């Protein structure tokens, strides 16, 4: 094995943040050898982030040429949210390790194909989910692993990210991002991994069944947010492999902005502090306080290690840990988390949670893609809310759904469309 893992970066908008984290966090044992983006301006900026020296990364604007270049052993997939599976499969078929930055698969058929590709490949797959590695969430995992809280009964995870006019204008500007940018069409349950993945990481519980409800956005906000038509919130209740219940609120378009996580267990509970993701509140039932412990306390935990490196990186330090752990996983030093089965299970929660909303809030069982019978059940399931130039969406992307023809005026559309 080479001393340094050769890394290619596919998508240099979000990809630039990971390049910064790799260098600012002083991650060891890698070098950036190739960059790919359809915009040459982004490629130039990404190249400037890589330290000058003997090994300047090669730049690509064509995906096929990039993946066929044999210039990298691992790839950071930082392309559009709903388009990762295709390129992850392309990489795995070439035995290239995959770091998939957001949703593993946007259809269940893609989830099946991704798992099959990973099973055949010599490379690893890891979802680039950074929220498990914030300081507060790492502390919740440490507390749960310590055993003093007891078995999980109920947990909650929230990722609240309201988008105002300034945020959304760029996504509705066809000149910059095209008519079909994914943020226009992402259903309220789909961007749920930031809410769910930390809870899976903390407890080891896997989702088994989901039921969901949506709250429609207001006409006032839709007007101010330049014609976004997705719902304000999609709330899911999930039963787990251990019999617990999890409430997930993912990518919610309401104030106040922030993330929050809670573990409710037999002997006590712990939660991050709203508005202060780095701090934790720990409480025990009065009859089950461990000897030498307080019944309740609120505190800011220390990083387990590498505090300076983590603090130098984005998303509360999560960007440092997730890329560092990916490099280590590629070298066989740790298990990737989330792996391909955990990642596709979260995709299934998002997809079937949305299906629950569209079908009268009925529950759906979450497939286990380790099982061939579950693969066979869903290998042709291509229900998709994301339209593209050559393929219309075949299910609604919001509960207040209207056709694309009515969604945008001619002035919103790119010339010739």
- Radius of gyration over C-alpha positions, nearest whole angstrom: 21 Å
The H-and-E topology, N to C, reads as: EHEHEHEHEHEHEHHHEHEEEEEEHHHEHH
The strand order across the widest sheet is: 14-13-12-11-7-10-9-8-15
Q: What percentage of the residues does DSSP assign to strands (E)?
A: 15-25%
Largest sheet features:
9 strands, mixed
Mean pLDDT: 90
How many β strands by DSSP? 15
General form? globular
Helix and strand content put the structural class at alpha/beta
Which stretches of 5+ consecutive residues score pLDDT under 50? 403-417
User: How many helical elements?
Assistant: 15
Instruction: State the separation between the terminal residues, measured CA to CA.
Output: 49 Å
Helical residue percent band: 25-40%
Folded structure, characterized:
The longest helix has 19 residues. It is globular and about 65 Å long. The termini are far apart. With 417 residues, it is of the alpha/beta class. Helices cover 32% and strands 22% of the residues.
């Amino acid at each position: 094995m080479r001393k340094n893992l050769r890394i290619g970066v596919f998508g240099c908008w979000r990809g630039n943040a990971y390049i910064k984290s790799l260098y600012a966090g002083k991650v060891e044992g890698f070098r950036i050898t190739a960059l790919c983006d359809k915009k040459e301006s982004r490629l130039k900026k990404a190249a400037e982030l890589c330290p000058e020296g003997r090994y300047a990364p090669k730049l690509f604007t064509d995906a096929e040429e990039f993946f066929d270049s044999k210039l990298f052993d691992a790839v950071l997939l930082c392309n559009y949210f709903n388009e990762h599976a295709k390129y992850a499969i392309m990489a795995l078929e070439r035995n290239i390790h995959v770091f998939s930055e957001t949703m593993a698969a946007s259809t269940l058929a893609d989830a099946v194909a991704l798992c099959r590709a990973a099973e055949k490949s010599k490379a690893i797959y890891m979802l680039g989910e950074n929220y498990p590695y914030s300081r507060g969430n790492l502390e919740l995992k440490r507390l749960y692993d310590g055993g003093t809280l007891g078995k999980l009964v109920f947990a909650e995870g929230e990722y609240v990210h309201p988008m105002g006019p300034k945020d959304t204008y760029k996504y509705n500007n066809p000149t910059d991002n095209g008519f079909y940018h994914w943020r226009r069409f992402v259903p309220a349950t789909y961007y749920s991994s930031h809410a769910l993945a930390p809870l899976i990481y903390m407890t080891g519980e896997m989702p088994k069944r989901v039921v969901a409800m949506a709250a429609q956005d207001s006409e006032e906000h839709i007007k101010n947010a330049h014609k976004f038509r997705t719902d304000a919130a999609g709330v899911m209740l999930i039963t787990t492999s251990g019999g617990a219940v999890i409430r997930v609120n993912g990518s919610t378009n309401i104030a106040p902005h922030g993330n929050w996580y809670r573990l409710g267990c037999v002997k006590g509970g712990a939660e991050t502090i709203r508005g202060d993701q780095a701090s934790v509140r720990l409480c025990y039932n009065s009859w089950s306080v461990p000897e030498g412990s307080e019944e309740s306390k609120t505190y800011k935990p220390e990083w387990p290690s590498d505090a300076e490196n983590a603090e130098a990186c984005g998303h509360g330090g999560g960007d440092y840990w997730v890329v560092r752990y990916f490099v280590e996983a590629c070298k066989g030093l740790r298990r990737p988390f989330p792996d391909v089965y955990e990642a596709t299970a979260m995709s299934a929660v998002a997809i079937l949670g949305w299906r629950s909303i569209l079908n009268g809030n009925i529950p759906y069982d979450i497939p286990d893609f380790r099982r061939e019978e579950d693969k066979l059940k869903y290998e042709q399931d291509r229900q998709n809310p994301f339209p593209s130039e050559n393929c219309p969406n075949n299910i609604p992307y919001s509960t207040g759904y209207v056709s694309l023809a009515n969604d945008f005026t001619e002035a919103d559309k790119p010339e010739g469309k």
